[in-house]
Write a structure and sequence with these properties.
This protein is about 85% helix and about 0% strand. The chain is mainly α.
Length: about 170
């Protein structure tokens, strides 16, 4: 019987493609994208567990570079550092046969440290205030929603009341 075997390079390439696809879903689908954001680095976890930390780190770099072609370098680096570090550390914990609680705790700590590093990179090095950036995006989202409501014929007084309730919270 002739069996074909998937080589590690082709398996890593396939898992990198799956990771990029999950990342794209997390970026462009509004509600379920938030769920996919937490799972987009699971293929990296699989690579680390099956093929070792060196291939996992190389795949992490490849995912970041390829993902930046689709969503821009700042977003790709932010997401990659934030979630990739936790997956790599969790995979390392599995490889080293740590207890599950230790592996998860180390992964959480790595994810937390990566989030702080991401915020520090954005704030100090790139001079980007992520809080004002997020508030600006929320404001734009509400403005678009109100425009849609107006085009659908919703009572202008209702829209005005909603704006008066939301705008003070965003300022």
């Amino acid at each position: 019987m002739n069996q074909s075997r998937l080589t590690p390079i082709s398996e890593c390439g396939l898992l990198i493609a799956i990771s990029i696809l999950l990342g794209m879903i997390s970026m462009y689908l509004p509600i379920i994208g938030t769920i996919f954001e937490f799972f987009w680095t699971f293929p990296l976890l699989v690579i680390v567990v099956r093929h070792g930390i060196s291939r996992g780190l190389i795949s992490w770099l490849a995912v970041t570079i390829l993902f930046s072609m689709f969503v821009g370098p700042l977003t790709a680096v932010r997401m990659s550092i934030s979630y990739g570090a936790a997956s790599i550390v969790l995979g390392l914990g599995i490889i080293k046969s740590f207890r599950p609680t230790i592996s998860v705790a180390l992964s959480i700590m790595a994810g937390f440290a990566a989030q702080i590093l991401t915020i520090a990179i954005l704030f100090f090095i790139l001079d980007i205030n992520i809080i004002t950036m997020q508030l600006k995006l929320v404001q734009e989202s509400f403005d678009q929603s109100f425009a849609i409501y107006e085009s659908l014929g919703v009572d202008p007084q209702t829209i005005s009341d909603a704006k008066s309730q939301i705008n003070p919270a965003l300022e």
